[in-house]
Amino acid sequence: MRRTLAVVAVTLLAATAGCSALVDTSNPTANGSSPGDMTQPSTGTQRTVAVEAGGQVRTDPDRAVVRVAVTARADSVETVRRRLAENASRMRDALERAGLDAERITSARFDIGENYEHRDRPSAPKFEGRHAFVVTLNDTDRAGDVVVTAVENGADSVEEVRFTISPGTRRDLRERALSRAVENARGKAAVAANGTGLELAGVRTVGTGDVSVQPDRREDFALARAGDGGAGGGAPTSFESGKVTVSAQVTVVYNATTTGG
Fold first, then answer.
1. Contacting residues for 85 by C-beta, under 8 A, at least 6 apart
2. Longest dimension (CA), the chain
3. Helix residue ranges, H only, the chain
């Protein structure tokens, strides 16, 4: 029976990282440097402004990752293994006939074990197995067709559809997110310095924190089979994906001088 899916993707966006500033206005030590000073000793008073700031970049996804699985239950491990192999082979063949390269379909997990339902219901099969696959797509528009093809040819579980970015895009956006974080740090430091009678006098240290990528992920699916009240004819699955967010965090310590000197 032809089966289709109706899926609406939920966009998960990372919250903007908080910012903080710390102004060090301590007097110099006897040798002319403040405690913890990372520069050479100075004859004048040392001041620093330390700032933590975040930066974000949002973009459309350029990669889709579909995770599907075939499952089987039986009273013998050998029967479960055989059924998994048959369904997995049928699904892979169908995806390749649909134009996917074999290397884009990779095995993610394979396990066979006790069916715990059998303990409470002896008539249930004794064993169950699961073989999960990951399908990686550079054309995000094909995600829906891949899901339908898999489900109609042996897969009976859609574990996840994730819209994300390729490694090349990730590297580019990482640099842009870090640049925005540094810009934000400069603004925060200027506000902190002005409020305490200081002027920024160059960067002393810069440290980068985690750079994270928040994809648009969907993990809960409702299977709508033809003839079960869904649209007849088996319309293809559609996804309404959102943006991918790349976030970066920096810590910048600025040298500072008193205003007017």
1. none
2. 87
3. 77-97, 117-120, 143-151, 167-194
Question: 83 phi and psi, to 5 degrees?
Answer: -65, -40
pTM for the model stands at 0.69
How far apart, in whole angstroms, are the C-alpha atoms of residue 122 and residue 229?
Answer: 33
The CATH number linked to 111 is: 3.30.70.2970
CA distance 40 to 25: 18
Going from the first residue of the chain to its last (261 residues), give the mean pLDDT of each consecutive group of 10, the final group possibly shorter: 36 37 44 33 66 95 95 96 97 96 96 93 95 96 92 92 94 95 95 90 91 82 43 52 92 87 52
DSSP summary character for residue 185: H
Domain boundary residue among 129, 164, 199? Answer: 164
| CB burial readout 204-230, b (16+ within 10 A) else e | beeeeeebebbbbbbeebeebeeeeeb
243: helix, coil or strand? coil
